[in-house]
UniProtKB/TrEMBL annotation:
Boundaries of every ArsA/GET3 Anion-transporting ATPase-like domain copy: 48-105, 135-384
Domain of life (superkingdom): Bacteria
Biased composition (Gly residues): 26-37
Pfam families reported for this sequence: ArsA_ATPase (PF02374)
Protein's UniProt name: ArsA family ATPase
Family: Belongs to the arsA ATPase family.
Region (Disordered): 1-37, 102-122
Amino acid sequence: MTGRADDGHGSPVGRGTSRDRWPDGGSAGGLLSGPGGDALREVASRVRVLFAGGKGGVGKTTVASALALAQARAGRRVLLVSTDPAHNLGHLWGRPMSDNPTRLTATAPGHAAAGGAGNDARGGHGGGAGCVDGVEIDPARTIDEHLRQVGDTLRRLMPERLSGEVARHLELARDAPGTHEAAVLERIADAVETGLAEYDLVVFDTAPSGHTARLMALPETMSAWTEGLLRRQERSARFGAALRGLTRDDDGAGELVGRRDPRAERDGEIRRVLLRRRTRFERLREVLTDPATTSFVLVLAAERLPVLETIELHEQLVKLGVDVGALVVNKRSPAGAGGLLDARRTREGEHLRTLDDALPGVPRTEADLLPDDVVGEAALARFAGLG
């Protein structure tokens, strides 16, 4: 497993539209127990799919993990999925992780055991026990599996003499623009489908803003692209059928009755494949744009570029029809610390006024800059304010 350590940890100190409405000094409690925590808890509690996104290095993994743990402590079964190629989940939880679900939480008080920590967690739910299972999507494995499925379909549909061309095309496609995004989208669809069927909540720890915005737009793009392929395939099938009809004479037509038509079967298989893909992407888009099912938490630092990027990402998500449920301002300089930290807090307040002016209706929670790293379940529980 590879990845960089998440460097944005903190505990919130309040919620408001003005710097003067936040308490001075120290911590106001954990992420969910301090001012503004109730709104964040409500968002996580009411949905089945939750995304944590924002600029790189602001603490998305910490916030996503804290929300997942809080929901597990409330009795929900949570699937926590990292879509960022530079994974942080394993570092944060202090667990070896993989592309398969791994149990991250110990048994919560009063809950029956639901599987050992660090073991493959599939099928380990039951007894009403809350848990967090984690997945770090492996980009290389995801692309390999995606291309394998595409290759199997192509080899089934294409003449055997073209198998070499199919292999060459797939090898070239491995590093082609869009291959990684298409493969990750398939895994996100898998995670959403698995989560809705086997878990109570899916929490996505996403890649930095630009990647995430493109990824959230892909279901609609892929649906439209697949629809175009279907239209072209239908025209091709009709043309082929008409051409075959013109080449048959009256004497030969009767002999073909009841015989297999390989080309018609191939056309039918292509259509079924395209219809399955269109249906899957349409279903994913319906889930992502249903505010009763899915919401997005934007995580940021109180600095100029993260604030501007957050405002831009919010605009893009709203245009896509995705609900933005809350803001988490992480790594906030503490009040009353004097010197450099006081000067930074003053400047941060100016940036947050820009944020409040742009997004006045989105609930906001702040999180103090902490001197220590958040590593492991116990530290995450303290960060979240779970006692």
